[in-house]
Each structure stands twice: as C-alpha cells, then as structure tokens.
Write the structure tokens for this entry.
Amino acid sequence: MKISITIFEDAEAWLIENLPDMCSDNICGVIPITGFDPYGLTTYKDFEEGSIKKCTMQDHIKALQLLCDQVGQTLFVGGIKNSKELTDAGNWDIEVVDAYWQLVYYGKVIYG
C-alpha cells in the first residue's frame, strides 16, 4: 500500500518564486548558463562533460518530484532528512541545488 502526501501545493509557482535565487559554486558539475525561464527554455551546461541542454518547466517540475522522492531515502544532501523540508527555500544549500540541477539535466544525480 502506498500512502502519499502533498509536499508542494503548486510546484510551478514555488519554482518561479524561488529558483532564480538558487546559486552555484565551483563544486557544481551542472549549472544553468542562462537565467531561469519558466515560460520557455533554460539552458544548462554540464562542465564535466562539456554538454549543453535546454530544459523546460516540465523538466524542472519532474526534477522537483524526483528530489522529493529521493531526499532522505537514497539521496542525502544538505542535511535534509525528509522532502517536507524542501518547501523552505532556506534549506536549499549548495548540495541540494547541485543535486536538483543534475536531476533537471539528467533525471538522476551522477556527481557526488
């Protein structure tokens, strides 16, 4: 039996409000090279591989779902113990942001 709860009432609105404030540092292998465009495409670059990918809002929403599914289970980043803690953007340290951008780009965390 699967029991589920709603983590983000409106994931798209949360991303529009908070994602522009997320930043990276030199540990991130994947980063956005254009500003977040919720109504178009956001370009990301994997600096390890040198590849570039344009991602849609749906890619970002899917990545947020993957992050919620994995954090505290198979993905341990930023000291976050459960997905409900992700709703507070202040909990998104560089490890969480790095994992999220990899999930946007690849659908999985491959670095770190």
The longest strand covers residues 42-46. DSSP finds three helices and three strands in the chain. The mean pLDDT is 95. Residues 29 and 111 are 7 Å apart (CA to CA).
